[in-house]
Specification:
Benzyl alcohol O-benzoyltransferase; 2 domains; transferase; 7-stranded mixed β-sheet; transferase activity; globular; CAT-like_dom_sf; Chloramphenicol Acetyltransferase; Plant_acyltransferase
Length: 454
């Protein structure tokens, strides 16, 4: 369900001086290579997560910033590579210099209450640059801090924990493992319940490397290929999907695909509506990259405690004409097929491709989605209880997050970034699909398709 863009909210944040938090005890000084899955060029960036907590009278006058600062120093004893810095070697190979230099930490206060953010918390968050100050010189990949944390206390007793971390070090599941350890230590544990495992050699290229699978997600496109979206007039909005909205979309699912997952049908719907909104050339290849957690695909399981990247991004590709004019089942079949091709061999083929092809980036112009609704982001508890919102702040990708609304219903939040001219069409097209109708499904399908104009 489309949400109206939130009314602009402004507030002032007072930041304390930036600190470097180092491990509470001496840690090994060593150089630890990343895996070739960690080394994918497409994840050479820092990603920010927001964790928003209400106040809790049971915590008395405890300062969450002080609690988290102390726990962080303890957590870095176990996760000491995070206190180091990345170095780049031959072939763009990344390694961590476990130097113990520490991670950046900022304590802050804001003159705003959680209630003022609105009933439905959603990205983009107002004053996000204030809730996570971009410390000058800290946002690089090589020779930069691998983590930046800002804890901002609110007038109501609530607080916001913003964490920017280097994606090459961990995917979201490794990130959650680290923050889980941080929360356990904040609540008084002496050691994390899951001890970290490095073993990045498990996902390094084979000897000799052999690319055995097709990887269109890394296709090098000509300058004339792929849709170029101008970034000078972009709109970032969130769309909420509860049980009612998901049921409405499922009306368009053909019988032989009825067992599809909520993520699959929602992704097919958004990919289709997005394409219609952008009005590309009918013969344009529209690329959807689906970030897949491959941990369950290995015959010999990835060790419990492994916190590196175990993700791939297989591509679903369709002509714009087909996406817009064919029923939803067309997009849905492509989404299901892309997800299904990820196997252990596929992951190893990606690692070999990275090592032999100069670590290519994902195809430009691709739309990227990731399902975080089944993660424990909301349950990360520093002692004040569950978060009321938790998720990434990266509008260029569609990270689906889980949200519990004021009625206690689970809602999927989908952030969308589009040019302003396309955002209006996207919302209208989505509303057409969600609208109740007395017509049979076939007629609704024709009605939806008629809006494509391709």
């Amino acid at each position: 369900m489309a949400q109206q863009a939130p009314t602009p909210l402004t507030f002032t944040v007072r930041r304390h001086p930036t600190e470097l938090i180092v491990p509470a005890k001496p840690t090994p000084r060593e150089l630890k290579p990343l895996s070739d899955i960690d080394d994918q060029a497409g994840i050479r960036f820092n990603i920010t997560q927001f964790h928003i907590y209400p106040g809790n009278p049971k915590m008395g006058h405890k300062n969450p910033a002080s609690v988290i600062r102390e726990a962080l120093a303890k957590a870095l004893v176990f996760y000491y590579p995070f206190a180091g810095r990345l170095k780049e070697g031959p072939g763009k190979k990344l390694s961590v210099d476990c130097s113990g230099q520490g991670v950046l930490f900022i304590e802050a206060e804001a003159d705003v209450t959680l209630k003022e953010f609105g009933v439905e918390l959603q990205p983009p968050f107002p004053c996000s640059e204030e809730l996570l100050y971009d410390v000058p010189g800290s946002n690089g990949i090589v020779d930069s801090p691998l983590m930046l944390i800002q804890v901002t206390r609110l007038l109501c007793g609530g607080f916001i924990v913003a964490i920017r971390h280097n994606h090459n070090m961990s995917d979201v599941f490794g990130y959650i493992q680290f923050v889980t350890a941080l929360t356990e230590l904040a609540r008084g544990a002496s050691t994390p319940s899951t001890l970290p495992v490095w073993q990045r050699e498990l996902l390094c290229a084979r000897d000799p490397p052999r690319v055995t699978c097709a990887h269109p997600e890394f296709d090098e496109l000509e300058e004339t290929d792929g849709m170029i979206i101008p970034f000078d007039d972009m709109v970032h909005r969130s769309f909420f999907f509860g049980p009612t909205q998901i049921s409405a979309i499922r009306r368009f699912v053909p019988n032989h695909l009825k067992k599809c997952t909520t993520f699959e049908v929602l992704t097919a719907c958004i990919w289709r509506c997005r394409t219609i909104a952008l009005q590309p050339n009918p013969e344009e290849d529209m690329r959807l990259l689906i970030i897949v957690n491959a941990r369950s695909k290995f015959k010999t399981p990835i060790p419990v405690g492994y916190y590196g990247n175990v993700i791939c991004s297989p591509a679903a590709i369709s002509k714009a004409r087909d996406l817009c004019n064919k029923p939803l089942g067309h997009a849905l079949e492509l989404v299901k097929k892309a997800k299904s091709i990820v196997t252990e061999e596929y992951v190893r083929s990606v690692a070999d491709l990275m090592a032999t092809k100069g670590r290519p980036s994902s195809s430009p112009g691709s739309y990227i989605v990731s399902d975080l609704t089944r993660t424990s982001l909301l349950e990360l508890d520093f002692g004040w209880g569950n978060a009321v919102y938790a998720g990434p702040d990266l509008p260029v990708a569609g990270f689906y997050t889980r949200y519990i609304n004021h009625k206690g219903e689970p809602i999927i939040v989908v952030p969308v970034l589009l040019p302003s001219y396309a955002m209006k069409r996207f919302a209208e097209e989505l509303d057409h699909m969600l609208a109740p109708t007395d017509k049979d499904d076939l007629n609704v399908q024709k009605h939806i398709g008629a809006h494509s104009k391709l």
